[in-house]
Amino acid sequence: WSLWMLVGYGSARVLLPQSWQRDCVLLAPVFGAGLLILLSAASSYAGLPMKTAAPIDVSLGLTLSGGGILFTRRTPAYPTNWRMVLGVHGLGFIAGGMALLGVVLYRAWNPYNDTFTYVAIADYLQTHSYFTPAIPGAYQPVLTQMALYQHFGRPNGIQLLTGILHSVVSGGVFVRCVS
């Protein structure tokens, strides 16, 4: 969350209209996640695995955010409604934490929900580009998820975001399931 906040604050200051400037802090994680998805998608199209691309993408995102802050430094700062910001971000943190609680506590996931898909693809993206063909087999059945998404040719933004987050935290809470 804090990485998305840092990357997105400058973008929010530049892209939001003047009447929305007081909501920059509220919307910064959305802009940060979107910017990191776009950067990681471009890196994946270039053929870079997430382990290589993540430092580049995060550095570029932070640089763009810093540039956005410098670009808008003369615009007046509007007061932020911190109560609403803390409420919305707190609710999002609680909901996200509940969805990933099994991964954090047991270092495993429930294969009957979307967590399995996102974790399997995030693991694959650590050492492969999104478009490197995944060949599932008896020894690596989790590659079926990646092969399915590759077959339809539509990378999902949350998969790229989970992949970049996995690279940033070096697999701290994710299960390593793909070599």
CA-based gyration radius: 18 Å
Helix coverage percent: 55-70%
Task: Categorize the overall geometry.
Answer: globular
Major pleated sheet: none
The total of beta strands comes to: 0
Helix and strand pattern: HHHHHHHH
The low-confidence parts are: 171-179
Give a description of the structure.
The protein is globular. 31% of the residues are buried. With 179 residues, the protein is mainly α. The longest helix is centred in the N-terminal third of the chain and has 22 residues, at 24-45. Helix 1 (2-15) crosses helix 3 (50-71) and helix 2 crosses helix 3. The protein has eight helices and no strands.
Short structural summary:
With 179 residues, this protein is mainly α.
Question: Any key phrases for this structure?
Answer:
disordered C terminus, 179 residues, 65% helix, 0% strand, single chain, mainly alpha
Q: How do the strands and helices of this protein lay out in sequence?
A:
Elements: H1 2-15, H2 24-45, H3 50-71, H4 82-99, H5 101-106, H6 114-125, H7 143-152, H8 157-168
Helix pairs in contact: 1-2, 1-3, 2-3, 2-8, 3-8, 6-8
